[in-house]
Amino acid sequence: MENTFALALHGGAGTITRELLTPELDTAYRTALQDALTVGHRLLSQGCSALEAVEATVVSLEDHALFNAGRGSVFNKRGRHEMDASIMCGKTLAAGAVAGVRNVRNPIQLATQVLRHSDHVFLCMQGAEEFARKQGLAFEPDEYFYTQHRYEQWQQLRDSDVYMLDHTEDFKDKKFGTVGAVALDKAGNLAAATSTGGMTNKNFNRIGDTPVIGAGTYANNNTCAISCTGHGEFFIRAVVAYDISCLMEYKGLSLTQAADIVVHDKLVRLGGEGGLIGVSASGEITMPFNSEGMYRASWVSGKAPVVAIYKD
């Protein structure tokens, strides 16, 4: 019997309901999720590593203007795009992360280069961009990252101190637009990757949980691979991704049990909204969230692919 392999991905969580998405947008999101899923699944089925699969899956999502990562990144206070990303290998616990990078076409590729070709884990801003140039990665002009929808979101907020996660009725389309992927390959190795454009109108070079290993991203062959999306400040304080691994390692919980405790109990008590995707060493997939919806998809070898958006 062929070894099990599995992939899950997300395109962000938040106030995502049937009322807020037009049928056209619903279809567009599902198509984009399916496309990214196909990219990663194809690599895993060919025997590629989990690390290669999650990177390629996230690149597919970064290249899609619908998601707040790479091309579709939101505008910060100054009308610019600052992007964060991280990736982790469950076999070696090697990790690479970048924060506050501008004009790098695919921040997840930069995080991978940090993992593979530097003696560091975490690079930020100009230094990370310099490293990207040294590694020959693609850069794009500001216009590449411009989308009308994101620009209008920012115009609503630009003269205020509000950022686009405020729990006010004005922002019913509050979405935590991070993208991510987790995978188990045929060799039994796990990997996780996450990428984001952060918050609309964010100020002071704010950094969320996405590039923080253990908070937004974590992978360990003994337990699981996790990629998070949500209100990053809470995910950092709750060390969400690592907490799930710990509950599995020290308490013997299943992936689903551990993730449910963290997402539906621990985070809720803190006031944190969002969700995550996870895959265990045995190929178990979980995609819990405590928000209205989460763009998500998964594919376990030998089973039908799953693409979903809303709670049901």
Automatic annotation (TrEMBL):
SUPFAM superfamilies according to UniProt: N-terminal nucleophile aminohydrolases (Ntn hydrolases)
UniProt source species: Nibribacter koreensis
Xref: InterPro entries: Ntn_hydrolases_N, Peptidase_T2
Protein name stated in the entry: Isoaspartyl peptidase/L-asparaginase family protein
CDD domains cross-referenced by the UniProt entry: Asparaginase_2 (cd04701)
Pfam families linked to this entry: Asparaginase_2
